[in-house]
Amino acid sequence: MREVTFLGLYNKDVKNLSGEIWTLNDWFRVFPKLNPARVYQIHFEFSGMHPADPGRFKDWRKHYEDSGAEIVVTSDLGFSRQRFFDTDRALKEWPAADFQSTMSCMLLDAIWEGVDVVNFEGIALLGDEYTYQVPALLRNIDATRAAGVRVNAPREQIWRDSISTVDWSNIHEIAKPYWMQ
Predict the structure, then answer these.
(1) Terminus of the chain with fewer CB atoms < 10 Å: N or C?
(2) Could you read off the pLDDT of 41-87 as tens digits, one per residue?
(3) C-alpha distance from residue 45 to each of 8, 13, 35, 69 (Å)
(4) With the CA atoms of 90, 94, 96 and 100 taken in that order, what torsion angle do they form, in degrees rounded to the nearest 10?
(5) 124/130 Cα distance (integer angstroms)
(6) Nearest to 72 by CA among 29, 21, 122, 24
(7) Alpha-carbon distance 67 to 107, whole Å?
(8) Percent of the chain at pLDDT above 90?
(9) What is the dihedral sign for C-alpha 94, 96, 97, 98?
């Protein structure tokens, strides 16, 4: 059985790190001793600058290389262990409107790679800049379960209870999300 934990940056929520650790772009700020199996840096042509927090990604290239992790990218960032996320395949399988976060890519990789169990740890989303991602993420979770992957997301019911219902029939398809251009 292949088990993967998607590790976010909300460290108050982390209880169980099982299986392979796949994490978000700046895990080293919160978990400096962690060497994840995989890091997702899907931001197109990422330069290491964050407008609201210029120091947020200090030495990010060194942290990525030193981690030993596979780095999943959507544009060439020059890492020795980078792999390109297959955006063309992704957009054939899921509507572009469903791609609102790094976790969309992570969940599709889990499906494509035959992962049996995905655990969400340290992923809060509500009350910060990521709240808008919740409706699409819930669709991603549903699609991942429909593909036969068990998804354990401790905050899922909170997300489902907290968001307003999205009428997906009013969502107009786009060619690609901005970060896949």
Answers:
(1) N
(2) 887 656 555 555 555 666 788 888 999 999 999 888 889 999 999 98
(3) 22, 30, 23, 19
(4) -90
(5) 9
(6) 24
(7) 22
(8) 40
(9) positive
